Amino acid sequence: MPRPAAVLVAAGLAATVLAGCNKPAPKITVLGGGKVVTISPSTYCFDAAHCRHSTGVDLPSFTTAADEKVLIDVPKEVERRGWVVSALTLNGKTQLATSGPIRNSHTYRVPSGVNSGDPFIVQVNELHSSSSNGSVWSFLVQVSPTKS
Fold first, then answer.
1. How far, in Å, are 2, 24, 119 from residue 27 at the CA level?
2. What does the pLDDT look like over 22-49, one tens digit per residue?
3. Residue 62's closest CA among 74, 47, 72, 51?
4. Which residues contact 82 (CB under 8 A, 6 or more apart)?
5. Closest to 12 in 3D by CA, of 28, 55, 34, 20
6. Is the pLDDT of residue 18 over 80?
7. Is the dihedral of CA 70, 76, 77, 81 positive or negative?
8. Under a CB-based contact definition with an 8 Å cutoff, are residues 75 and 27 in contact?
9. Domains in the chain, ordered, with CATH?
10. Are the beta carbons of 61 and 139 closer than 8 angstroms?
11. What is the DSSP letter of 146?
């Protein structure tokens, strides 16, 4: 017969693992073109063994003027771990710009003209040490011409 203390410890560990699976993934907030968009991650890793992947999700999109900056705001848990922002071509194969690792800040601004007026994808990656931990948020920036 198992000891009561061992049963309680096992039950506590099982509850902790299950709670980790059910906890919500953090969302980022993006402001551009006078619009605020809250974005869920396409992939979020709670730790190396527990990643949640979204499938069939449309890439969030918004339009901003060519002379504006797109503001990205991350929650405290992402800020604490560190994060990096990359601007990519629509096929995702060419990096147009990168922020480098961001630490001790919850916001970053991406210039909307980074792709010479063409649409581009912005990707936010959460860091673990100095490399991505697998958590990714992405969105599409459509650029409208500036008015003269």
1. 43, 9, 23
2. 678 999 999 998 899 999 999 898 887 8
3. 72
4. 101, 102, 103, 126, 127, 130
5. 20
6. no
7. positive
8. yes
9. 25-144 (2.60.40.10)
10. yes
11. P
Q: What is the 3-state secondary structure (H, E, C) of 52-119?
A: EECCCCCCCEEEEECCCEEEEECCHHHHHHCEEEEEECCCCCCEEEECCCECCCCEEEEEHHHHCCCC
Q: How many of the other CB atoms lie within 10 Å of CB of 110? A: 24
Distance of CA 15 to the CA centre of its chain: 27
Of 143, 79, 71, 138, which is closest to residue 108 (Cα–Cα)?
Answer: 71
DSSP annotation of 23 reads S
